[in-house]
């Protein structure tokens, strides 16, 4: 957060628009849609709310099946349960760590042949990198499956010149505190379909109809973003290019310092992609590096440096025990070997170097003790 966010917040505060309605929301939606390259944006209280309403907008009903990347944050799957549908988990591909288009196609085809068609796909753009939408979209179009892009982690990423969030029928973003831009909490749903955006806006405001009294004909939710938070979002959005540039620099610094070590490799950038590098994620191969991912996290923690494992795949979560999974070994390896290194935009080069020193020392200590 900088002075521009503080100024924006005070501007909104002083305007008296302290409700989930007001000029900052309207402007945030317009600027955001323009930035992503879509016609409509609806500002919401969280990325989870955006995904929930996206499923409703796609007509997903109780008992339906929805395919989703297994390697993701739990919200991508939970929303499927919110609408009473069943998640079908799909493994990652090696090239981008995102949903494997081939496995997705096989699952869609198989379910279709069984007479239990998959209604929608939630493809996640993991850690700031777009999934392979050319192949995913072809399959969805062929089988009449609705496509939702969970771009919560990928604002600012691009693929073949188009922005993350613009590839699905609906794109969903998060402005949670740890995201590339934040409103402390918030989200955005984007789409090119005017009627769909209109419905989502209505559902997000308790489905109140435009009458003088309170008239409701559909179930609604309290999912709109506050005008105060929209002002912060606008100031953050204005600095997005700078933020992505810095995240990519941080990634490059990690790679140049740690890349030469044996047994460590970084999330690949698939052809056509420009990752936002929301997080720098490394895989530690214990047999080559000398110690595993957890030992690296422990060593960093001893120096008061926070790092985290990558997402634990949904098919390994007790919450989703018994759910269908197609494949699984790629995401499992990313989970057991993966560490998310400190990646905050405000990190100095020296701070990144300090993290590298600790990781490097862990490797050399183990190399010496193994010798
Ligand atoms: C992939 C993914 N989807 C959905 C969400 C949910 O967003 P929110 O926390 O804003 O509800 C997050 C992060 O929080 C996420 O990383």
Automatic annotation (TrEMBL):
Keyword Transferase annotated: yes
Enzyme kind, highest EC tier: transferase
EC number(s) from the headed UniProt entry: 2.6.1.-
Cross-referenced CDD domains: AHBA_syn
Sorted UniProt keywords: Aminotransferase, Pyridoxal phosphate, Transferase
Highest taxon of source: Bacteria
Modification N6-(pyridoxal phosphate)lysine occurs at: 179
Catalytic residues as annotated in Swiss-Prot or TrEMBL: 179 (proton acceptor)
Family: Belongs to the DegT/DnrJ/EryC1 family.
This protein's name: Putative pyridoxal phosphate-dependent aminotransferase EpsN
Gene designation: epsN
